[in-house]
Amino acid sequence: MVKDIGFINSFPDSEQDKQRLVSELMCEWKEQVAANQIWDDNSQRFYSGADYFCSDGFFPYYFQQKPRILFIARETVEMSGCNYIEELLKGYHKNYVAEVTVNRHAFHRRMLYIAYGAIKGNCKLSYADLPYASEIAKTFGTIDGISFAFMELSKYSNDSATANTRCDKKLMQQFLIDSDLVNFEFAKKELELLNPNIVITMNLWECGLDTALIEKALGKVSQLCGNIYLPHATLNSLIVGSKEVPLIDMMHFSSRKSHERDFYNPAMKIILDLKSRGILT
Description:
Blueprint: H1 5-8, H2 13-34, E1 37-40, E2 45-48, H3 49-52, E3 57-58, E4 69-77, H4 84-94, H5 106-119, H6 133-138, E5 149-158, H7 169-178, H8 186-194, E6 198-202, H9 211-218, E7 221-223, E8 233-240, E9 243-250, H10 259-276
Parallel strand pairs: 4-5, 4-6, 6-9
Antiparallel strand pairs: 1-2, 3-5, 7-8, 8-9
């Protein structure tokens, strides 16, 4: 496999070994699902799981952030065979993602706002004082900007005509089964490599998958603080390696909700609460 030297070199020296480990894991994962067949309604033919696989991981300078934030979404959309991190890093810097500007893309705008508020604003920056998402994106993944890690629960890309309005539960389930989670703990290994201080998931438990299957992939999730943050989020914990990491499950980042009321403000409040309780430093 030919390596994109330009992409690898976008990572600082201190992160290149880690990036190679993530890349090796993605290759192993892709090889595992390659023997499985996926039916495509559009072309009326089967494809290898490797054709649908989209790798992910962390953006440059992630390990220099405080806190290290990992976002976990449901499934890749229209990115079969791609490297999500490489493509999105280019898109952020060009201010063009999925045929719209970053400011107009709710999914990415919300991740950028939350990460910026937590990292640069120490969770005390008001929504009104945030830079435009396009401004944050300009220096994203560089020494002057912010960064985060990103992974999809399902790395099979949903390329259907309805991909932007509903997830493909059947395809997601197939990916988790094809990954042979009993014998290969790929998702848990990725979590350990990314070593986040905090995980933010996007309504994973309401996508139609069996909870046991999700937890077989990620590990056991335990409620950390009752339901005091509803209806905007729930606060839980996830075991990553040998440590307990706070996990905030929010509404899906593509939902038609208020950026400020339903996403940014609740995230800042929860992270501040975690800091005040000594759970997050």
